[in-house]
Protein backbone atom coordinates (compact mmCIF):
# COMPACT_ATOMS: atom_id res chain seq x y z
CA UNK A 1 0.00 0.00 0.00
CA UNK A 2 1.45 3.35 -1.08
CA UNK A 3 1.01 5.77 1.79
CA UNK A 4 -0.83 9.05 1.28
CA UNK A 5 0.94 12.38 1.73
CA UNK A 6 -0.18 14.45 4.71
CA UNK A 7 -0.96 18.15 4.49
CA UNK A 8 -0.87 20.18 7.70
CA UNK A 9 -2.10 23.78 7.71
CA UNK A 10 -0.73 26.07 10.44
CA UNK A 11 -0.92 29.74 11.31
CA UNK A 12 -0.35 31.46 14.65
CA UNK A 13 -0.97 28.94 17.41
CA UNK A 14 2.39 27.55 18.61
CA UNK A 15 1.01 25.45 21.46
CA UNK A 16 -1.77 23.90 19.37
CA UNK A 17 0.63 23.21 16.50
CA UNK A 18 3.07 21.47 18.85
CA UNK A 19 0.34 19.21 20.24
CA UNK A 20 -0.80 18.34 16.72
CA UNK A 21 2.69 17.52 15.46
CA UNK A 22 3.75 15.55 18.53
CA UNK A 23 0.65 13.36 18.31
CA UNK A 24 1.20 12.83 14.59
CA UNK A 25 4.85 11.86 15.19
CA UNK A 26 3.63 9.02 17.44
CA UNK A 27 1.49 7.59 14.66
CA UNK A 28 2.16 4.27 13.08
CA UNK A 29 3.23 5.08 9.48
CA UNK A 30 4.54 8.55 10.43
CA UNK A 31 8.16 7.68 9.63
CA UNK A 32 7.11 6.32 6.24
CA UNK A 33 4.91 9.29 5.32
CA UNK A 34 5.59 12.57 3.51
CA UNK A 35 4.44 15.65 5.39
CA UNK A 36 3.68 19.00 3.76
CA UNK A 37 3.28 21.92 6.15
CA UNK A 38 1.60 25.08 4.88
CA UNK A 39 2.37 28.10 7.06
CA UNK A 40 0.26 31.16 6.34
CA UNK A 41 1.82 34.61 6.58
CA UNK A 42 0.75 36.97 9.36
CA UNK A 43 -2.45 38.87 8.67
CA UNK A 44 -1.21 41.85 10.66
CA UNK A 45 1.50 42.87 13.12
CA UNK A 46 -0.50 41.49 16.03
CA UNK A 47 -0.03 38.00 14.59
CA UNK A 48 3.62 38.46 13.60
CA UNK A 49 5.24 37.15 16.78
CA UNK A 50 3.10 34.02 17.05
CA UNK A 51 3.45 33.22 13.34
CA UNK A 52 7.23 33.47 13.71
CA UNK A 53 7.13 31.13 16.71
CA UNK A 54 5.18 28.57 14.71
CA UNK A 55 7.62 28.83 11.81
CA UNK A 56 10.60 28.46 14.12
CA UNK A 57 9.06 25.29 15.54
CA UNK A 58 8.09 23.62 12.23
CA UNK A 59 11.58 24.24 10.83
CA UNK A 60 12.98 21.88 13.47
CA UNK A 61 10.56 18.96 13.52
CA UNK A 62 11.44 15.47 12.33
CA UNK A 63 9.96 11.98 12.52
CA UNK A 64 8.63 11.71 8.96
CA UNK A 65 10.00 10.28 5.72
CA UNK A 66 10.19 13.75 4.21
CA UNK A 67 9.03 17.17 5.36
CA UNK A 68 8.29 20.05 3.01
CA UNK A 69 7.49 23.43 4.56
CA UNK A 70 5.65 25.98 2.42
CA UNK A 71 5.79 29.46 3.97
CA UNK A 72 3.28 31.77 2.39
CA UNK A 73 4.73 35.17 1.54
CA UNK A 74 1.37 36.86 2.03
CA UNK A 75 -1.68 36.06 4.12
CA UNK A 76 -3.89 33.71 2.14
CA UNK A 77 -6.45 33.05 4.86
CA UNK A 78 -7.30 29.52 5.94
CA UNK A 79 -9.86 28.80 3.22
CA UNK A 80 -7.68 29.85 0.27
CA UNK A 81 -4.60 28.18 1.74
CA UNK A 82 -6.39 24.85 2.18
CA UNK A 83 -8.02 24.91 -1.26
CA UNK A 84 -4.69 25.69 -2.93
CA UNK A 85 -2.64 23.24 -0.87
CA UNK A 86 -5.05 20.34 -1.14
CA UNK A 87 -5.47 20.84 -4.90
CA UNK A 88 -1.72 20.96 -5.48
CA UNK A 89 -0.90 17.85 -3.46
CA UNK A 90 -3.87 15.66 -4.40
CA UNK A 91 -3.28 16.35 -8.10
CA UNK A 92 0.33 15.25 -7.72
CA UNK A 93 -0.23 12.17 -5.55
CA UNK A 94 -3.79 11.08 -6.33
CA UNK A 95 -4.84 11.16 -2.68
CA UNK A 96 -4.31 13.21 0.47
CA UNK A 97 -4.74 13.26 4.24
CA UNK A 98 -5.48 16.72 5.67
CA UNK A 99 -5.03 18.17 9.15
CA UNK A 100 -5.20 21.62 10.69
CA UNK A 101 -3.12 22.91 13.59
CA UNK A 102 -5.54 22.06 16.39
CA UNK A 103 -6.14 18.34 15.89
CA UNK A 104 -4.64 15.72 18.19
CA UNK A 105 -4.69 12.25 16.65
CA UNK A 106 -4.68 8.70 17.92
CA UNK A 107 -1.48 6.73 17.14
CA UNK A 108 -3.61 4.75 14.66
CA UNK A 109 -5.07 7.74 12.80
CA UNK A 110 -2.72 7.43 9.82
CA UNK A 111 -3.25 3.67 9.65
CA UNK A 112 -7.00 4.11 9.57
CA UNK A 113 -6.90 6.87 6.96
CA UNK A 114 -4.49 5.06 4.64
CA UNK A 115 -6.37 1.78 4.86
CA UNK A 116 -9.68 3.53 4.20
CA UNK A 117 -8.21 5.34 1.19
CA UNK A 118 -7.01 2.02 -0.19
CA UNK A 119 -10.23 0.13 0.55
CA UNK A 120 -12.57 2.70 -1.01
CA UNK A 121 -10.41 4.02 -3.85
CA UNK A 122 -12.55 2.29 -6.50
CA UNK A 123 -15.87 2.81 -4.68
CA UNK A 124 -16.82 6.00 -6.50
CA UNK A 125 -19.83 6.66 -4.30
CA UNK A 126 -17.46 7.24 -1.36
CA UNK A 127 -16.01 10.74 -1.62
CA UNK A 128 -14.55 11.52 1.75
CA UNK A 129 -12.87 9.82 4.73
CA UNK A 130 -13.32 11.41 8.15
CA UNK A 131 -10.97 10.69 11.03
CA UNK A 132 -13.31 12.30 13.56
CA UNK A 133 -16.77 11.26 14.69
CA UNK A 134 -19.49 12.59 16.95
CA UNK A 135 -19.52 11.31 20.55
CA UNK A 136 -22.40 8.93 19.87
CA UNK A 137 -23.06 5.55 21.45
CA UNK A 138 -21.68 2.69 19.37
CA UNK A 139 -24.24 0.02 20.25
CA UNK A 140 -25.59 -1.61 17.11
CA UNK A 141 -22.87 -0.11 14.89
CA UNK A 142 -19.79 -1.64 13.31
CA UNK A 143 -16.34 0.04 13.28
CA UNK A 144 -17.33 2.46 10.52
CA UNK A 145 -20.38 3.81 8.73
CA UNK A 146 -21.29 5.76 5.60
CA UNK A 147 -23.50 8.83 5.61
CA UNK A 148 -24.23 12.07 3.77
CA UNK A 149 -22.16 14.72 5.60
CA UNK A 150 -18.51 15.67 5.56
CA UNK A 151 -16.44 16.26 8.72
CA UNK A 152 -13.19 18.20 8.31
CA UNK A 153 -11.41 17.51 11.62
CA UNK A 154 -8.84 15.21 10.02
CA UNK A 155 -9.95 13.98 6.60
CA UNK A 156 -8.86 12.43 3.33
CA UNK A 157 -9.95 12.13 -0.27
CA UNK A 158 -8.83 11.27 -3.80
CA UNK A 159 -8.00 13.47 -6.78
CA UNK A 160 -10.90 12.27 -8.94
CA UNK A 161 -13.40 13.27 -6.22
CA UNK A 162 -11.69 16.53 -5.26
CA UNK A 163 -11.70 17.58 -8.92
CA UNK A 164 -15.40 18.38 -8.50
CA UNK A 165 -14.77 20.83 -5.68
CA UNK A 166 -16.25 24.23 -6.42
CA UNK A 167 -16.57 27.26 -4.21
CA UNK A 168 -19.43 28.99 -5.98
CA UNK A 169 -21.84 30.20 -3.33
CA UNK A 170 -24.29 31.84 -5.74
CA UNK A 171 -24.56 28.62 -7.73
CA UNK A 172 -25.29 26.62 -4.59
CA UNK A 173 -27.88 29.08 -3.32
CA UNK A 174 -29.58 29.05 -6.70
CA UNK A 175 -29.56 25.28 -7.21
CA UNK A 176 -30.61 23.97 -3.79
CA UNK A 177 -34.35 23.40 -3.37
CA UNK A 178 -36.09 23.71 0.00
CA UNK A 179 -36.19 19.92 0.26
CA UNK A 180 -32.47 19.67 -0.49
CA UNK A 181 -31.65 22.36 2.06
CA UNK A 182 -33.49 20.36 4.71
CA UNK A 183 -31.67 17.15 3.77
CA UNK A 184 -28.35 19.03 3.66
CA UNK A 185 -29.09 20.24 7.20
CA UNK A 186 -29.33 16.62 8.39
CA UNK A 187 -33.09 16.65 7.83
CA UNK A 188 -33.38 19.87 9.79
CA UNK A 189 -31.48 18.70 12.87
CA UNK A 190 -28.43 20.90 12.18
CA UNK A 191 -29.45 24.11 10.44
CA UNK A 192 -25.96 25.65 10.69
CA UNK A 193 -24.81 23.89 7.51
CA UNK A 194 -27.03 26.06 5.33
CA UNK A 195 -26.39 29.04 7.62
CA UNK A 196 -22.69 28.73 6.76
CA UNK A 197 -23.51 28.87 3.05
CA UNK A 198 -25.51 32.06 3.56
CA UNK A 199 -22.84 33.61 5.80
CA UNK A 200 -20.28 33.00 3.05
CA UNK A 201 -22.64 34.53 0.51
CA UNK A 202 -23.06 37.61 2.70
CA UNK A 203 -19.30 37.76 3.36
CA UNK A 204 -19.65 37.38 7.12
CA UNK A 205 -17.27 34.43 6.96
CA UNK A 206 -14.89 32.99 4.36
CA UNK A 207 -14.65 29.20 4.70
CA UNK A 208 -13.92 26.25 2.46
CA UNK A 209 -15.35 23.11 4.11
CA UNK A 210 -19.04 23.86 3.66
CA UNK A 211 -18.49 23.94 -0.12
CA UNK A 212 -16.81 20.53 -0.07
CA UNK A 213 -19.79 19.31 1.94
CA UNK A 214 -22.15 20.81 -0.64
CA UNK A 215 -20.16 19.34 -3.54
CA UNK A 216 -20.40 15.86 -2.05
CA UNK A 217 -24.10 16.29 -1.31
CA UNK A 218 -24.91 17.53 -4.82
CA UNK A 219 -23.17 14.49 -6.32
CA UNK A 220 -24.95 12.03 -4.00
CA UNK A 221 -21.63 11.09 -2.48
CA UNK A 222 -21.10 9.31 0.82
CA UNK A 223 -18.60 9.97 3.59
CA UNK A 224 -16.95 7.37 5.82
CA UNK A 225 -16.76 7.94 9.57
CA UNK A 226 -15.19 5.77 12.25
CA UNK A 227 -17.70 5.06 15.00
CA UNK A 228 -15.06 5.91 17.60
CA UNK A 229 -13.06 9.01 16.76
CA UNK A 230 -9.37 9.01 15.88
CA UNK A 231 -9.19 12.80 16.30
CA UNK A 232 -9.69 15.27 19.14
CA UNK A 233 -10.14 18.96 18.35
CA UNK A 234 -8.25 21.14 20.85
CA UNK A 235 -9.03 24.38 19.03
CA UNK A 236 -12.54 25.02 20.29
CA UNK A 237 -11.15 27.47 22.82
CA UNK A 238 -11.83 30.55 20.71
CA UNK A 239 -8.27 30.64 19.37
CA UNK A 240 -8.93 29.64 15.75
CA UNK A 241 -10.55 31.18 12.70
CA UNK A 242 -14.35 30.77 12.64
CA UNK A 243 -14.29 29.09 16.08
CA UNK A 244 -16.19 29.63 19.27
CA UNK A 245 -15.51 28.17 22.68
CA UNK A 246 -17.53 25.04 23.32
CA UNK A 247 -16.64 21.40 23.81
CA UNK A 248 -19.64 19.15 23.24
CA UNK A 249 -17.91 17.22 20.46
CA UNK A 250 -15.22 15.41 22.46
CA UNK A 251 -14.86 11.70 23.09
CA UNK A 252 -12.00 9.43 24.11
CA UNK A 253 -9.63 8.68 21.24
CA UNK A 254 -9.81 5.38 19.38
CA UNK A 255 -6.80 3.13 20.00
CA UNK A 256 -8.05 0.22 17.93
CA UNK A 257 -5.54 -0.71 15.23
CA UNK A 258 -7.65 -3.20 13.28
CA UNK A 259 -10.69 -1.52 11.75
CA UNK A 260 -13.26 -3.30 9.60
CA UNK A 261 -14.60 -1.49 6.56
CA UNK A 262 -17.95 -2.05 4.93
CA UNK A 263 -19.44 -1.67 1.48
CA UNK A 264 -22.96 -0.29 1.57
CA UNK A 265 -25.33 0.95 -1.08
CA UNK A 266 -26.42 3.89 1.01
CA UNK A 267 -26.46 5.81 4.24
CA UNK A 268 -26.35 4.01 7.58
CA UNK A 269 -29.77 4.82 9.04
CA UNK A 270 -28.86 3.85 12.61
CA UNK A 271 -25.77 6.06 12.65
CA UNK A 272 -27.80 8.91 11.12
CA UNK A 273 -30.44 8.53 13.84
CA UNK A 274 -27.76 8.65 16.55
CA UNK A 275 -26.26 11.84 15.08
CA UNK A 276 -29.71 13.43 14.86
CA UNK A 277 -30.26 12.55 18.51
CA UNK A 278 -26.90 14.13 19.37
CA UNK A 279 -27.97 17.40 17.76
CA UNK A 280 -31.38 17.22 19.38
CA UNK A 281 -29.76 16.89 22.81
CA UNK A 282 -26.91 19.34 22.17
CA UNK A 283 -28.09 22.37 20.24
CA UNK A 284 -25.94 25.47 20.40
CA UNK A 285 -26.68 27.30 23.60
CA UNK A 286 -28.34 30.62 22.89
CA UNK A 287 -25.36 32.61 24.15
CA UNK A 288 -22.95 30.58 21.97
CA UNK A 289 -25.09 31.34 18.94
CA UNK A 290 -25.05 35.05 19.79
CA UNK A 291 -21.28 35.06 20.33
CA UNK A 292 -20.71 33.17 17.08
CA UNK A 293 -22.89 35.61 15.12
CA UNK A 294 -21.21 38.66 16.65
CA UNK A 295 -17.77 37.26 15.86
CA UNK A 296 -18.72 36.73 12.23
CA UNK A 297 -20.30 40.18 11.89
CA UNK A 298 -17.44 42.11 13.48
CA UNK A 299 -14.56 39.96 12.20
Question: What's a quick, concise take on this entry?
Answer:
With 299 residues, this protein is of the alpha/beta class. Helix content is 39%, strand content 16%.
Describe the structure.
This protein has 299 residues and is α/β, with parallel strands linked by helices. The chain is 39% helix and 16% strand. The strands form two sheets. It has an eight-stranded mixed beta sheet, sandwiched between helices. It is globular, with a radius of gyration of 18 Å.
SSE blueprint:
Layout lengths: L5 E5 L3 H12 L8 E6 L5 H14 L7 E6 L6 H16 L1 E6 L2 E3 L3 H11 L6 E5 L13 E4 L7 E4 H4 L6 H7 L2 H7 L7 H10 L7 H10 L3 E5 L4 E3 L35 H13 L4 H12 L2
Parallel strand pairs: 1-2, 1-4, 2-3, 6-9
Antiparallel strand pairs: 4-8, 5-10, 6-8, 7-9
Helix pairs in contact: 6-8
Instruction: Give the total of beta strands.
Output: 10
Q: What proportion of the residues is helical, as a percent range? A: 25-40%
Strand count, sense and barrel status of the largest sheet are: 8 strands, mixed
Q: Structural class of the helix and strand makeup?
A: alpha/beta
Q: Please tell me what the overall shape is.
A: globular
How far is the first residue's CA from the last residue's CA?
44 Å
**Continuous helix count:** 11
Uncertain segments are: 240-245
CATH overall fold name:
Spore Coat Polysaccharide Biosynthesis Protein SpsA, Chain A
Provide the succession of SSEs: EHEHEHEEHEEEHHHHHEEHH
Cα-based radius of gyration, to the nearest Å: 18 Å
Total domain count: 1
Residue share in β-strands:
15-25%
Mean pLDDT: 91
Q: Tell me what the CATH architecture is.
A: Alpha-Beta Complex
Side-by-side strand order of the widest sheet: 3-2-1-4-8-6-9-7
CATH superfamily: Spore Coat Polysaccharide Biosynthesis Protein SpsA, Chain A
Specify the CATH class. Answer: Alpha Beta
Amino acid sequence: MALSPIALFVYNRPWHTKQTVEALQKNEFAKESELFIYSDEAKNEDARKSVDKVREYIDKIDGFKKITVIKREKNWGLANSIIDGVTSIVNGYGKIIVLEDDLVTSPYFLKFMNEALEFYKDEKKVWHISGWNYPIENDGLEDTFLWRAMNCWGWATWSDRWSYYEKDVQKIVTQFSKEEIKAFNIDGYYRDFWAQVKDNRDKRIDTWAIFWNATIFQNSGLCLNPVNTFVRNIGNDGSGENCISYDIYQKELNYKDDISFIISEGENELALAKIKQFYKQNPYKLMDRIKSKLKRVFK
